[in-house]
Design a protein that fits this description.
mainly alpha
């Protein structure tokens, strides 16, 4: 397997893990989740659900996510409010963390 395919597979696995973790938290289990969706606004999650999501992702990826650093990083994405953070924003943070 070449390096580009290896990174692509890793990236797809990361996004898939984030989406599956979110799927477990949303009330509408039939909801189709896309990377551009806003975690709070579009998925109807509460801030405590976001914390649960972070803990789940820490276990899945065997990493430690500093919530303060995460909040600072996510705030940089076009100066979005917390409720406007997209799935892809969280994905990009995790990729940088790994």
């Amino acid at each position: 397997m070449d390096i580009d395919n290896s990174f692509k597979m890793r990236d797809e696995e990361i996004m898939s893990a984030i989406k599956s973790s979110l799927k477990a938290l949303v009330k509408d289990k039939n909801l189709s989740i896309s990377a551009e969706m806003k975690i709070i606004e579009d998925l109807g999650l509460e801030s405590i659900d976001f914390i649960d999501l972070v803990f789940e992702l820490e276990k899945k990826f065997r990493i430690e996510i500093d919530l303060n650093l995460l909040a600072l990083e996510l705030a940089k994405f076009k100066e979005r409010r917390f409720t406007e953070v997209r799935i892809v924003d969280l994905y990009e943070f995790i990729v940088k963390t790994l």
